[in-house]
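Hi R.,

As promised, here are both runs. First protein below:
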Amino acid sequence: MPHGIVAINRPEVQTTPTFDTKMRAAWEKDEELKQTAEDDEGNKFFMLLDILYCMKNHLSIITVVYNNYDVLEDFFKSLNKQIDTNFTVYIADTSSRRHTIQKQGFPTKVMCVENKGYAHGVNVALQKATENGGEQFCVINTDVFFKENFVEKVKESLGAHTRSLIGGKIYYAPGYEYHTDRYGDNDRGNVLWYAGGTVDWKNTWTQHVGVDEVDHGQYDEKKETGFITGCCICFDKTVYEALGPWDEHYFLYYEDADYCQRAKKNNVRLVYDPHIVLWHKNAQSTEGSGSKLHMRYQKKAQLRFALKFAPWRTKLHVLKNYF
């Protein structure tokens, strides 16, 4: 025996095989519970991250209905086919003859409101969406339809263009072209309604780039533009906080042009993104494009827009033509 080490004889503790097995099982169970607890904490953490991501990446689709419930069928069909289903539709129903809007395969919130104009309906829906934590918005007409990647492309564009108003490439829906006799059957569905926009300040008209042209890829470049139509206009919470609600002095038309002008004054970019694609049944809330009702609302809104933003010479010109 090595020097300095004293041998002490101790009785050995005798254990039975059953006792050893139970002790080992208890120890293994304890380790298993510890691992489960650690896994649960990890899962909760990643679940929280997923929830936060979904909230951040959730799209609030804002729209207004006024008696034209029949156009909702194609609109809802398009939404039901979306690849990216992380969205909620907010509908401000301003109708004088209200119908029940049937439940769809996606979250829908309907708010019945007094008809104080399109901008008022948009504002009510936007307020509800922000109260529910919305951070990405797409204000859109109900008289449109689109492909299954629409929501996906809107989110991609919002992610790529911060502090921006964003519009997409919009075609006339087949059969809704303004100059119906110009086009052959093969052209229908490929006639442009909007591919960017400008404002003619001599007359205070908003103009659509590419309108009435057959699309041959001539407007496939993403770029900054001068005007975005309210048929489809996308933005995030930072833009909404900077610009505030839409101007409710416009009952119908030019509320989108007003929002664009306010955006420019607040250094918010206007971006045309041709990867966002939809088809529009033009002017379905005012008896069709070129109707007397359509022209009356448009002329009145043009006057308000001119008095608010146009040069003095144009203000006088528009006033003279109005009366």
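And here is the second one, sequence first, then its structure tokens:
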Amino acid sequence: MSPYTQRARSLVLDPLVRPLSGTYDLLYSLRNLRRLEILVMIAACASFLINIALIFAARRFADMDLPVLRIVNTNYFSAIYTPFSFILFYEVLMLVVALPRSLSVAIAKQYEIISLIVVRGVFKDIGELEAAEQVADQVKDVLILAADMVAALAMFALVAVFYRLRTRSPLRLDPNVVESFVSFKKAVAVALSVIFVIIASVSLAGWLYSVVESSAAGRVKGLDTDLIFFPTFFEILIFSDVLILIVSFSITDGYKYVFRNAGFVISTILLRISLTSPKPYDLLAALSAMCFGIAVLAIFNTYAKLGVDPGENVEPAGSDERVGT
């Protein structure tokens, strides 16, 4: 990076980035993260027990014909869906926390989230099945369940492969430049945190409204909050990844880094598409995203073994070195 580029970036970004970077350090201290983890655990356990109690009441007092109980799924396995939702929201927040650490770690977190969404879907599929003796009459539901299970297992393996391929190849750059770039990513993480809270609040309000409306009507008018939260948040992630890609170009214009980061953006776009696609195209899009990300990372590692300096810039003609062919 030229001194002029570094100075221009510092003049434009530093006044905006430094306050937000400090906010990130305050919000996501180890102490606060531990508290958040405990809070999520308590919320997940409480939601699970409440769901179990509602299912028991719906089974035990079915003859009372209460509107609230009529909208409850009476399959006990469906109770697993609710605590898993809390875990997923926590994992999304951990994705935001991981963003300043490493782009590849953040991408791996995205893969983990998608795989957990599929696993949660397996519990939902099981909860929607009727009695075991009627499974033969539910061929479509069984096939959907089998597809989700196979896809979840494949994603679990692909995430492991991605982590296995991920290696550290530190850039030989000015520590101040690296620190400035990390501060920028912390500022992006703080902005994403605010967006996370807003989208989560809107999703929760929509879910509560659907519950009240369903109770009043005496039948389920379900609102899939996933269609509000996850697709919207992944769209924001795409733009944040592009923003980081642009700023990282001022850190190093090495070809392999630019291509790798662009490839990760493409992978995120495919994940976003998977969230709103019908089955089985949602699973195919998610698996394609992970395979593409793994391929990009594998080729990136091959470039790293070539011994080319990742921070090397093209020298103008007329320098001391001879111009090669």
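A quick note on the second one: The chain is about 75% helix and 0% strand. Let me know what you think.

Best,
J.
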